[in-house]
């Protein structure tokens, strides 16, 4: 497995090795020993899967009290995945990075995205539909659920809305009333 650093400290792209022949291919997507040796978390407690249509924008979500690290994988379709650093003691606090994720990247490699605890996460579906699977380091904790507005003017996230062919993003009623970064409950320092 190749581990690739990104512009945000601690956010990583992972490329598991695929082994193939004329019948298809096989890949080991998660192995506790391999992840631990690479300095990645090796204890995930929950798997989540979503199916969404083109233009659906989910996020920017995070949890207080029981923060979730997320290992994101696209099973079908194409998304623009965004991570925002909410760690106030981080040199990247308030910065974001976006990633085009598909089942296989442009080089034909499988690609997963690791987003550690202390980050907000969201994505925009750019294909007709997309299925996203992600493992979390903590279970869903409704009392700690928080959301930053996807179009927060402080963050200035460059969502690829032009790729929607004139569609407006479809946001849940809960996400539509997310907080601004400057007013949000953020994870504690340290």
Automatic annotation (TrEMBL):
Q: Which reaction does it catalyse?
A: dTDP-4-dehydro-6-deoxy-alpha-D-glucose = dTDP-4-dehydro-beta-L-rhamnose
GO biological process terms, alphabetically, are: dTDP-rhamnose biosynthetic process; polysaccharide biosynthetic process
Which pathway, metabolic or otherwise, does it act in? Carbohydrate biosynthesis; dTDP-L-rhamnose biosynthesis
A GO cellular-component term linked to this record: cytosol
Q: Which key words tag this protein in UniProt?
A: Isomerase
Q: Which NCBIfam families match?
A: rmlC
What this protein is called in its record is dTDP-4-dehydrorhamnose 3,5-epimerase
Q: Which organism is it from?
A: Edaphobacter aggregans
